[in-house]
Amino acid sequence: MMLVISVLLWMVVVALGFMAAMRGTDLFRDSVRDSVIEFMRLIPRIALGVIGSGFIADAMPQDLIVPWIGPQSGMLGVAIATIGGAATSGGPVVGFSIAAAALKGGGGAPQVIAYVVAWSLFSIQRIIGWEIPSMPPRVVWLRAAVSVPLPLLAAATAMLIARP
Amino acid sequence: MPGRRRKPFDFSTATVLAISVVSGVTVYWREGADRFFTIFRSDVLLFGNMMPKMLAGCLIGGFVTLLLPREVVARLVGAESGILGLFIALATGAVLPGGPFTIYPVAGAFLAIGADAGTTIAFITSWMLLGYNRALVWELPFFGGSFVLWRVMVCLPLPILAGILGRTAIRALALRMEKSP
């Protein structure tokens, strides 16, 4: 499955690269260079988060995670994870490190999905730093309000549809 | 990348670094070198496996930025209303690469050229939950392929739902406003 995805992914890269190259070799070269620089800049932060979350999960006492958001915690665990995700401030390194540590440390997968979805939708830093300056605040609050049920729905669906 | 440049190490990364080091030392000291290196090896392997996909994600992002200028997206989404508008918002939110500094100005532009708030909400929600860029570059190395695929699958209908909820709320609100003197 992952191999198929990898092959498809690189086919997309080649196809888009070809289309970009048609626009001009210079544009294409700049685009590749910028993307590779972006990739190199991301590596240390993501590597840190991925490796760090493994240690954090192991160092944390198990009974800190499992009773709260473990696989048996049900919708109450989902609600706890949703509140946790919405309350997490910080960039993707923080959000994903906590989520990965929770998953490795015995958290239930639907609960972790609720956490990730809630963090993505409600990251207060992003709302204040980016969303409010670029959009009418009314729309921002409406978006946040209609997003409240989404983490719960995502987790409930994950409980119904088995992991591929 | 236009807009704000991110330093490779910011404050939140430093916090994660500090907690990771403390945790790593705790694991080593409490459970021994074997356990330490088992965890280390499995996470390095996961990360290494995902690196080519992350690179692909970055390259696709770069090419899409070149091929699909923001103005085109804004026109595409802003012009269409109804359910079709929500689906276009979902598709563009999922394919448009970049961080908040590229997404929110586009969303602001939709509103400026007359898109309704429901469409804008669907677009932002789609970028947040279905954006391939974030899924490939960020989520994959942390969780591996099957988890991310699953997460995206269960989130697939949510942007449309958010858009519909937004429109419904606006209509209900307008109704109430009409009734009041």
Shape of chain B: elongated
Q: How far is it from the N-terminal to the C-terminal residue of chain A, by CA?
A: 9 Å
Strand content of chain B: under 5%
Number of domain units of chain B: 1
Tell me the fraction of residues in β-strands of chain A, as a range.
under 5%
> Helix segment count of chain A?
9
Low-confidence stretches of chain A: none
- By secondary-structure content and strand pairing, the structural class of chain A works out as mainly alpha
Bin the helical content of chain A. over 70%
Structure report:
The complex is a heterodimer of chains A (164) and B (181). Chain A is mostly helical. Chain A has two domains: 48 residues; 105 residues, no CATH class. Helix content of chain A is 84%, strand content 0%. Chain A is built from nine helices and no strands. The N and C termini of chain A lie close together (9 Å). The model of chain A has no long low-confidence stretch (mean pLDDT 90). Chain B is mainly α and 181 residues long. Chain B has one domain. The radius of gyration of chain B is 21 Å and the shape is elongated. At the A-B interface, helix 1, helix 2, helix 5, helix 6 and helix 7 of A face helix 1, helix 4, helix 5, helix 6 and helix 7 of B.
Describe what is shown at a glance.
Chain A contains nine helices and no strands. Chain A has helices at 2-22, 25-59, 62-69, 74-87, 92-104, 109-122, 124-134, 137-147, 150-160.
Provide tags for this entry:
heterodimer, A: 164 residues, mainly alpha, 2 domains, B: 85% helix, 0% strand, disordered N terminus, disordered C terminus
Helix-strand blueprint:
The complex is a heterodimer of chains A (164) and B (181).
Chain A: H1 2-22, H2 25-59, H3 62-69, H4 74-87, H5 92-104, H6 109-122, H7 124-134, H8 137-147, H9 150-160
Chain B: H1 11-67, H2 70-79, H3 82-95, H4 100-112, H5 117-130, H6 132-143, H7 145-155, H8 158-179
Helix pairs in contact in B: 1-6, 2-3, 2-4, 3-5, 3-8, 4-5, 5-8, 6-7
